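Today's session is about reading a structure prediction critically. Students often jump straight to the picture, but the first step is always the sequence itself: look for stretches that repeat, for charged clusters, for runs of hydrophobic residues. Only then move on to the predicted structure, which in these notes is written as discrete structure tokens rather than atom positions. Here is the chain we will use throughout the hour.
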Amino acid sequence: MTELVLAHEPILRLAAFLATVAVMAGWEALAPRRWRMLSRMTRWPQNMGIVVLNTVLVRLVFPTAAVGAAFWAETQQMGLFHLLALPRATEMILSVMLLDLLIYGQHVVMHKVPALWRLHRMHHMDLDVDFTTGLRFHPVEIVLSAAIKFLAVLALGAPAAAVILFEVILNTSSVFNHGNVRLPAALDRVLRGIIVTPDMHRVHHSVIHRETDSNYGFALSVWDRLFGTYRAAPAKGHDAMILGLPRYRGPEDGGFWAMLLNPLRS
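Below is the predicted structure for this chain, in token form.
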């Protein structure tokens, strides 16, 4: 059974990913939230090229990723949940919530530690924010994130099913909350009480520093509210706000190799 789940885990994640991308691409075409500064054909090849590189790299460095760690921890009876002997449903819920909290904390650290910000700023250099921005992370950051999740899963003894569910939620949330899509204001208010919506997360991509240092969450919105990093809206409004970073705004900064080498720049 273990081998069967491991064999199909990439297919499950890929199917969820492709379905989310298809929905978001169509939604952005039909109901965009903002006008684009650059055409999709200018940005998408670079952003999707980064996705392909990251996918291959993570599979090479962590062949079974966090799911394999969960199975190994279960065979070894290793981790917090194996000591507590909680009901399976409780372990599932706590695993998803704690791993999401971990991603929130990791995101904050990426902004606060200068060496890590050099890696993370590639994500923020995008002058437009759409679903492809949610996939645009430096390969070194992706490997670090995978290693942190790997260790967290071992420490928790998280069930493999919970880890698979979390990975699907994380990927889906990142694609969704970066979407350049329009939601009715009333629906957005209801949704952001639970999850991070595109209008909520877009504030985080503002060129204004105090707005960049807010709304760090990926899936659940509770962490920003709990730790005081929540900001309801950008000062200039969503239509007038400027996205990206003040410094890296030229066409020479958006190329595939320029993005990969950006952490080496002062």
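Discussion point for the tutorial: The CA atoms of residues 31 and 261 lie 34 Å apart.
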